[in-house]
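Protocol step 4 of 6: record predicted structures for both targets in the notebook before any analysis. Target 1:
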Amino acid sequence: MWEYTDKVQEHFLTPQNVGEIDRPSGTGDVGSLACGDALKLTLKIDKNDIITDAKFKTFGCASAIASSSVLTEMVKGMAVDEAAKITNEDIAQALGGLPKEKMHCSVMGREALEAAIADYRGLKLPKAEGEVVCECFGVTDLEIIRAVKESSLRSIEEITNFTKAGGGCGKCEDKLRKILQDTVSGKSEIFIPQVFPPKKMTSLQKIKKIEEVLEREIRPGLKKDGGDIELIDVDGDFVIVALRGTCKSCSKSQTTIKEYVEKKLREFVLPSLIVEEDN
């Protein structure tokens, strides 16, 4: 019998946010009843890209229910960009840990969240065509490679725990061993989606977001050294700013613009932004 943490038992016995949101902003359906686990996650997202509500329906074991329940609690009130960074390890940690044999339940939660966010943004998740390695559970080689890379798996047993591959008849064990060896040695390559492309913003939304990031992330750091920054103009992806105070006459102003300001704006607003200093 597996040992469950108090948190897992709490979310299994009294799961939070069970159900389905009416007219959701995004929906993620993953797994299948044929494989024994399925999850439907629905999200409500406001105009500021904040997740205001999350609900789930799942078919699975105690760990699947607990993982789905805690995930909905994690994402509520979170910005979509931040929610997109949640990993299956984050879900497991929020439960105080999961039995190693049940880590695939946290992976299913992460997959449902990715799918729901992609649906909200009008995108289709990059579905890489792969070879089915485990016919019992329909797991492809690319899904296995991703799990090995993301969670630093080092044994066939761990692969089974995270993906269920090899958990049926066991005929795929040799293939799993080969995939594991190739992946760890760097021979296997796979595209792993990290952060979804941002939803297209209007010009006003972009300016507002830039001003927020300047105020929250950039200005405090400059003020510590007696400097400041002012937003002059936004033209498409070009952001024109002016350094003030001690930053204005600093010989490293271009370094500040490119290595600090531009990097922050690309991280928190749009990765395509180009920051230039006002002449």
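Target 2:
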Amino acid sequence: MHFGWSDDEQAYRREVQAFLAEALPDDWEALSAGGPGSDAQADFSRGFCGRLAERGWLTQSWPAEYGGADAPPWRHAILGEEMWGNGEPRGPQYMNVNWIGPAIMKHGSDAQKALHLPLISRGDVLWCQGFSEPEAGSDLAALRTAAHLDGDEYVVDGSKVWTSYANHARFCFLLVRTDPESSRHKGISVLLCPMDLPGIEVREIPSVVGERYFHEVFFDGVRVPASCRLGPEGEGWSVVSYALQFERVGAARYHRAALILDDLAECARERGLLAEPRVQEKLGEARTLCEAARVLTYRVIDQRAHGSPPTADSNVARLAGTTAEQAVADLALEIFGEESLEYGSYADTRFRWAMTAGVAVGATEVQLNLVARNLLELPRE
């Protein structure tokens, strides 16, 4: 079978590229260096996503009834590649489109859809996800943040950690345990929690990744309307599982890694390193990993295009993308040597961003466990 982009798809990619060349400021590289969580990039994303929405691109793959254009998943994939290849100017809003919106479409009430989906499709709202906890990081099913129903409100107590974008978010996709007698995957619920409610405190966690990237979020007797619960009480695990199938291939990291690899090959040439066998080997390995991640991601997109249910292929694609980005970052350190030790340098920035790839949306070790269990069907010890 021969795979290739159609003439219309290639024309669309060129149109997106032309738009980005016009829309991104001259200092965009410096502006985006702080990452999607920085104050500057979060502010920029609001106007930028509004412009995408005006063109009908932001949520084009959504159903028309929810503000989309019923476009095939491939057009959304093209947009994602060009966005990530240019430092993700959508900022935190990329995840709104990729998985928060689809989760609300599938599990939300009519009122929830009416409130949240227009805000997302207009590029007019920032979200964060309240998943990890101090004693339940990668082991999400061990979460302890509790919510008990008091009249028509849930009273939430607990904390979340490593929460990206919490400082700018208007809403939090919050996981809580609504059954105190439950354990593991049972008794978990999802709340679409407004972040301006009394009792919520956000504290930044200093990190090497970038400013405003990680936060702790504390909930002290926060009263969240029961109407904010997404899906049935106690069945939040199925809601999250559905959402994360979208998120695991929502960031086109392989595309950005491939572009960086091209830059590194030129840097190696300029430094007289391109003829060294070790550098050639690492360049070849990184290129192979980038292309493998691309093909595996396309497999998942093709499944969606055909209406197939989610499979463990999304976990495989996620692992491939993480591995590719790490390989490119390691090569950057090799080429730049001691220059990489300077904070904010080209290689340092690549390495710090690759660090997040193995943690976000489920750590690499978690993905490996899911592949072993759901794809390879290996027995548990």
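Step 5 preliminary note on target 2. Strands lie at 127-130, 146-150, 153-160, 171-177, 188-194, 200-205, 214-225, 229-230. The chain has three domains: 7-125, 128-234, 248-375.
Proceed to step 6 after PI sign-off.
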